[in-house]
Amino acid sequence: MTARGSNPWIVLVLVCLAQFMVILDATIVNVALPSIQTDLEMSDANLQWIVNAYTLLFGGFLLLGGRAGDLIGRKRIFLAGVVLFTLASLVCGLAQSEEWLIVARGVQGLGAAFVSPAALSIVTTTFAEGAERTKVLGVWAAIAAGGGAVGLLLGGILTDTLSWPWIFFVNVPVGIVAFVLSLRLIPESKDEAAHRSFDLAGAVTVTVGLIALVYGIVRSSQSGWGSLEVVGFLTLAAVLLVSFLVIESRSAEPLVRLSIFSVKTVRGANAAMFLVACGLFAMFFFNTLYVQRVLGYSALEAGLAFLPFTAGIIIGAGLSQRLLPAIGARETPLLGLALATAGLLLFLRLTPNGEYLTDLLPGIMLASIGMGLTFVPLTLVATSGVPHGDAGLASGIFNTSQQIGGALGLALLSTIATSRTTGVIEDLGRRPTEADSASALVDGFHLAWGGTAIFLAAGAGLLLLLLRRRDVRAVSHGEPATVPV
Prior knowledge:
Layout: H1 8-28, H2 33-40, H3 44-47, H4 49-72, H5 74-93, H6 98-126, H7 131-161, H8 166-169, H9 171-185, H10 200-223, H11 228-250, H12 264-294, H13 299-305, H14 307-327, H15 331-346, H16 356-382, H17 391-428, H18 434-466, H19 473-476
Helix pairs in contact: 1-6, 1-7, 1-9, 4-5, 4-6, 4-10, 4-17, 5-6, 5-9, 6-17, 7-13, 7-14, 7-16, 10-11, 10-17, 12-16, 12-17, 12-18, 14-15, 14-16, 15-16, 15-18, 17-18
């Protein structure tokens, strides 16, 4: 609960501001990559690490960040993350070399791994389960899903009108304001029942294991899934993550209390979100490449092209508030995933000469409205029925599902798309023209878009399989869920 004199709605605004900054930064860099590559003279192989360094540290430290908030204090971890993220943003903007920028992006991801789960757990401990939390998490989910689309727009505007360092400098004043106001207005909370001991062995194995997993996935797009490098890192990840499970099952104060997965809502929502993220991250990536590399859009035009995605997210999130009590917390995301899958399938109509209004926009609107309908109930379900002492853990698990799922889906579909494009060009038997290259790219993108649709459809199938209506009845009707002992 909030501390005396604390306004819960001000708390919501502050944590949402920080979360928006974190989510936005995951995509804002995408449209600026060509400018960064030119200025820092980066190779194509190294350019991807501007994105991957952030993903590696973000995905790897989320569980640690979530549990640290429960034990040390959610406000303390939140503020520490904001400071780290803001300083790293400043260093990114001042970068004079590719090594400098890549390392600073990794530190940004580390800061985000502390901000994101702490922010969500502050929300879930500030607002009691029921109708009020449903409304609040609707706002949260819209920010989480819409931040990615806004990042593309803002990145285009800043890159075209100023220069690429400003996509990082813009975080500095936002971070300072968020820190100063949060220091005064956000109350502290933590798991008072927890002992002061910390599961260091569990923290090390899960963090290094997740980093090895994400690194292996990311490298697969270049080295191939069967390469010694990728197989080595994935094997290391498997050994470390299995070791983590053994450690947690025997630890008196585990980093992740494994019994939390006995809660059906936690298990079902995270499994579904993992697959949804596999498709959603890849969709942003390939659509951005399509409008810039095939249609020839500038950074600003590419950002504007995805502005309707933000509007669709807002529409879907608003509709979900009405549909949750009407059709249920399981049926609402199923409807959303059906719409989003249909939107992704519409991208299969795209050609090298595609038109934005008739070919691209319909798919964007269907997919974005579907995502708005999906994120709100899944966030609610994933954090319901969990004791306050495990709020940070539940938030960290949910965020980890998104980040690891997104990295896996993007790496897998990038490998498939690149292989298809390379094969088409090789089959020509001659030097490709500009039109040949564009056509080959679109052929690869078609496989990727088909893959994103399959991931979303699989997520809907898992949700249907793992959750029954009675499991989410309390969430559907805005009532407090029974907290398991």
